[in-house]
Every structure is written in structure tokens, then in C-alpha cells.
Amino acid sequence: MREAAFREQNKKRWQHFEQLLSQPRNVDADQLADLFVQLTDDLAYSATQYPESPTTLYLNQLTGKVHQLIYRNKKEKKSRLITFWTQELPLIFYSMRLYFLYSLILFLITAAIGAFSAAYDDTFVRLILGDSYVNQTLYNIKNGDPMAVYKQQDAFEMFFLIALNNIKVSFQVFAMGVMLPLIGACVMLFYNGVMLGSFQYFFHTKGLLLFSAMTIWLHGTIEIAAIVLAGGAGWRVGNSILFPETYSRADSFRLGAKEGVKVLFGLIPFFLVAAFIEGFVTRHTEMPTVVKLLIIGGSLAFLVWYVILYPRKVAQNA
């Protein structure tokens, strides 16, 4: 069947669907289900016969509206909060796995850039970390307590401020990905990666690389991982804007933003745990090395399981 004939044959029915969708409160669940079945049949035929045509794009948009309406009207179970953490978020993690990988690779590259820059330019660390922080750290090293910066505030106050700051940073990474698709998230990841690399190299020059790493990564394992994940979510949204594929740009953006925001809110507990460790645990720099290794190793094992292994299992069983 020619595309013009296909459109003419179904035109009145599609117009009727549009009228129903313009007054969604008057459409019951059975009508929505019937609409969805008919439209998906039409879309499947159109996508097969006329894959690049405006008709296929139109049907894709119309079907998407019905799907969104069904999802919006669906009654949520009381276990919704549980399924978010056990099913929904892991599935989103799995679907975004490549974005997370790209984000991690960029972060590691920029951390290396930060370290090399600090190695070849003595002023670079001060440029990135600030004179006051560097001077304070040098003073702490001279007094035999290099990590004293983690002991200067009350533990609870430190926990609150760090949690707030980390959540703000994650939202900034995500927002930059929306405002400057792909580039914005890269800029934020670049800055944080360079800062970490120069920071660690600074302690290396003082012969304290291992000691600083064993202290910083107590909370940094989860904190840095969460920032990388937020960067991946920002890339996902940016990609949905630049490359909408079969969706309209607006629908693609809504879908990408919806998934990205879910990741952001899903990362809040990560930042709270990291802030708790930094506020209440990291300050105990004298704790045995084996305890530090257990905390760092446990954090890393959890991240590998919840971000990589478990999502794969959920996707395979879905």
C-alpha cells in the first residue's frame, strides 16, 4: 500500500485519537488500552513500510502520548519505593552503562592530566586548589597531621555541609549536561578530575601519597563514583537532545531528562553515605590500615555490585 493511501485510510481514526487525547480525563483505562494497541499496530506497519517518513514520526509521537498517559494514570503500589531501588533504578543504570563508562574514562583521563600538570608546573596546584588550602595543608604537614583538615569542624556540621555540597555538585554536573549538551557534563567532569589528580600529586611530592589515598578514598570511593554517575546522567540527557533518533526532539528530551533525574535522586543516598564517612570516620586518621582497606574495599564492592552486576541481572530477568 502506498503511504498516501495508508494515511487516507486511517486519517479519520487518528484524528479521533487526537481528540480523545486532548481530553484525557474523559478517556477510561479500556479506551487507552485499545488506543495503544491500535496505534502500535499502525506504527509497526508504518515503520516497516515507510521507516523514514513523516507518517512514521507522527505515529511514533501519538503512540508516545498514549503511553505517557497510561503510565501517568497507573496506580502506584505501596511497594513503589522498594521497586524503585530494586528494579527501576538498576534498569536505568543498565541502560546508561555506556554513558557511565564514557564518564569514568573522561574522569580518569582528566585526573591524569591534573597529576601531570602539577608535576610540570609548581603553581598548578595552587591555581586549582587555592592558596589558602595549600598553605593550610603545608602547615598541617609541618605539624605532623597532614589530614587535619578533616578534624577542624564538628562531625555533624561537617556531614551536613559536605552532603549538601556533594548533592549540589551532582546537580551542577547534570544541569550542565542539559544547558550545554554533552559539552557541559564534560566540563564539570574535567574540572573535578583535574582537581583530584593535582590534589593527589601534591601529597605525592610530600611523600604522603599512600597515606593521603588511604584517608581520602575512605569517603572518596562512593563520592567520586556518584559524581561520575551524575556525569553519565548528564551525558544521557545531552544525547537525547542532540540525537533524538525516532522520537521528536521534545519527546526524546523528556524521556532522557526523566531517566536522568531518577538517577540524580537515586544518587542522594550515595552522597549521604559518603558525607557520613567523611564527617564521622575520615577524621580518625590514626585508625589501622586494615580497617581503612575494609571500608574502601567494601565501598568499591558495593558499587561494582549495585551499579554493574545487579543491574545486568535485573535486565536479564526483565
What does it look like?
The chain is mostly helical. The chain has two domains: 71 residues; 237 residues, no CATH class. Helices cover 83% and strands 0% of the residues. The protein contains twelve helices and no strands. The two termini are 36 Å apart. The model has no long low-confidence stretch (mean pLDDT 84).
Percentage of residues in DSSP E strands: under 5%
What is the tally of helical segments? 12
Q: Sketch the major β-sheet.
A: none
Taking pLDDT < 50 over at least 5 consecutive residues as the criterion, the unreliable ranges are: none
How many beta-strand elements?
A: 0
Q: Indicate the overall shape.
A: elongated
**Class by alpha and beta content:** mainly alpha
Ends apart, CA distance between termini? 36 Å
InterPro entries: SpoIIM-like
Keywords: Membrane, Transmembrane, Transmembrane helix
Layout of strands and helices, then pairs:
Elements: H1 3-22, H2 29-49, H3 54-73, H4 80-95, H5 97-120, H6 124-129, H7 131-142, H8 155-179, H9 183-205, H10 209-242, H11 249-281, H12 289-317
